Known about the structure:
The complex is a heterodimer. Chain A is of the alpha+beta class. Chain A has a domain at 4-119 and 232-250: 3-Layer(aba) Sandwich (Peroxisomal Thiolase, Chain A, domain 1), CATH 3.40.47.10. Chain A has helices spanning 22-36, 54-58, 63-70, 87-100, 123-128, 144-158, 163-177, 189-198, 207-211, 244-250, 279-292, 309-318, 327-332, 349-353, 357-373, and strands at residues 4-11, 46-50, 77-81, 106-113, 219-221, 224-225, 235-243, 255-264, 301-303, 386-389, 391-393, 398-406. In chain A, α4 (87-100) packs across α15. Chain B has no helices and eight strands. Chain B folds into two domains: 7-39, no CATH class; 41-117, CATH 2.40.50.
Amino acid sequence: MNKVAIIGVGHTKFGRLKDKGLMDLLCDASLEAINNSNMNDKEFDSVYVGSMCPGEFNHITGVASALVDRISLIPAAADHIENGPASGGSAIKAGFQAIASGMNSLVLVVGGEKMTHISTPGFVTSVIATVTHHKAERPHGVSLPSFAGLLTRTYLQKYNAKLDWLSDIAIKNHKNGAFNPYAHFQRTIEDFMESAIQKGRGNWNNIHEYLNDDNSNPVIADPLRLFHVCPISDGAVALVLCNAEIAKEYCEDPILISGIGQATDTHIVYEREDITVLNALRRSSNQAYKMAKKTPEDMDVAELHDAFEILEAIESEDIGFFKKGEGARAAHEGLTEIGGKIPINPSGGLKARGHPLGATGVAQVAELVWQLRGEAGKRQVPDANTGITCNFGGFGNNIISILVERM
Amino acid sequence: MNSTEKKIIRIKCKKCGLFQDQDHRRCLKCKNDTFEKIEANGNCTLLTYTILNAPPSEFRDKQSYGIGVVEFENGIKTLGQIEIRENIKIGMKLKPVYEKICENLDGIEIYDYVFKIIE
């Protein structure tokens, strides 16, 4: 199997980007990545675009074919990859396989979504809910936040954990996101609170009082509140992948994809023996560790899929950093902050960086590339040489883990 | 989508005995493809729940509703809307009541089970 390296990264701002359409975002990220890789005059073999709902949100299908035309990569092979909120991770896996197999030597991977222009209340929630079981779950009015609510209630009771500890994850992710120039929210929660106090919206003695107030932090899917849930965002991220043998000819600091894994679990969430266990993550991360000949203890940094803050807690357990039931407490104790035992989501995670569905899996790897190259500025994890991601599809029924390291 | 009460049916694998949703063509656990139908009976226990305040668009005729996972006395699990009351707790006994759960975007009434607290 050929080794695969990342030699270029492109990342649009995430957020409510009024002036940019889906194709603008995909083009911007792609051209920046190609430029970053010094491959401007080269022919690419393949382009993989991860996007969850371009047909539903933007009335565009065939996004990969549309992209190669706009950025002059014809006649490159072009595929749109859809795997729910893990579409980005799946697109990277497709690019990895193309090079590892020897079929391709130069590949562009892009993830992107344009969602914030949709004004119908509940429409985005409804479209995303189409990933749930269409007979056993969806007809009852479920949404992904409702599953996160069910999971949070079970977790808090089973492991004697506190909702405030999940708030601590949001506080940490906003603190990190404040230093990420691409993040949807570049503000700490303290900053949100101060601004609310100044506007006369209330008075709170501390951050947890602010986060437990029904007015400042309304309940979305009880017990989860607004600040425990990621936003919907627009944005795109791209990576240039090539055969690692030739990576150093083009790039001073290529990053190796040394492990990759993917696994599935039951479509119906309640058919899992224990809903607090992400079997798909246990399997996918084990595959990635095994391929890279690494262990969880070798990781310097991780980007996990905190679409809901409960997910960061349980992912930090099932990816091997903490024992089952101890992830939320570990975050509360500061073990996952930059400078802690295992820094998680230095980018701000989905909570602060934002979650343009198909872009997220690619953004996670982009952040690790910057961390490993030492280009992460004020959110830099010291001495980061190895990192892993968890990109969570559906409600935990399809998970991809990507392990990267310095070459 | 009519108001005629349907039954809550699961299938039981004839080889390994696993209860599962009727949509499975092969057993989730052992890949066997022969099953017997089992009907949920009696009351059920609340395993976990949430109160959703931001419903998908087609359920927005209500601002809020409960969603829970319940287990019947014969081991069948299901998910459905639950009646929201003060002091609702995991482990409570509930009974299924077939009723209108929403009026969808086309104005059609949707019926299903709502799990209600036994007085």
